[in-house]
Amino acid sequence: MAALCATLGLVVFAPVAGARHNFSILDLSAAEVAPGDSVRVRGFSYTDTAFLHLGAVDGPVLAELQPSEENIISGDVTIPPDAAPGRTLLYAVQQDPNGAPTRLPGRAPLTIQGPGASANQEAAAAVEARPSRFDVGGNGSFAITVVAALATTALLGAVTTAYFAASRRRASAQGAS
Fold it and tell me: Which has the closest alpha carbon to 128: 110, 143, 155?
């Protein structure tokens, strides 16, 4: 019975534990860059080619990065010389053959320097770059997901065992009558 519950738990709840990987994280070496300069990009949880877009998920593609065996992307991205100054986002999008995103894209804030950029934008970009308490990721959330899946599997096993024990008692009580 325990083997059945464990197998059922792995089949039913293992995809739940892996579901946390349906998004990707992106990090930049600098929060501010001048038009025409490069910024180092690093990200994890990429299972396919990442297309780096400026300003929007469907914005101009600045680079294509291939993930390593560890699902990590890394490379330099050159900001177009004619990029408008100001705050923007750099998106790393994995997409299907039709161009539709297949996972939640990684994104990172970026300030493009220039005459139209505010003096406070570097501070604002630093605040945006801080992880939110609602950000998902890291080994902590994976551990919590695994513990929750194991606890749910144990609960399922206990309920199943109690059900079959009650069924056996009813059957033996009916047989004794």
Answer: 110
* Tokens matching residue 174: 């009916």
Identify the residue with better confidence: 165 or 21.
Answer: 165
User: What is Dmax (Cα atoms) for the chain?
Assistant: 93
Q: Residue 145 and residue 138: Cα distance in Å, rounded?
A: 11
Alpha-carbon gap, residue 27 to 82, rounded angstroms: 23
Lowest mean pLDDT among 28-32, 90-94, 144-148: 144-148
In 3D, which of 28, 24, 53 has the Cα closest to residue 40? 28
Taking only the tens place, the pLDDT of each residue in 97-141 is 887 888 888 999 999 998 755 444 555 555 555 554 444 444 455
Q: Report the candidate in 159, 150, 169, 147 with the shortest Cα–Cα distance to residue 1.
A: 159
Residue 75: DSSP 8-state: E
Which residue type is seen at 114? G
| Cα–Cα distance for residue pair 115/5, rounded to 1 Å | 64
Asked whether the whole model's pTM tops 0.85, one would answer no
Fold for 24-135, please state it.
Immunoglobulin-like (2.60.40)
Distances in whole angstroms, Cα of residue 137 to Cα of each of 20, 62, 65: 8, 26, 21
| Residue carrying structure tokens 């959330």 | 141
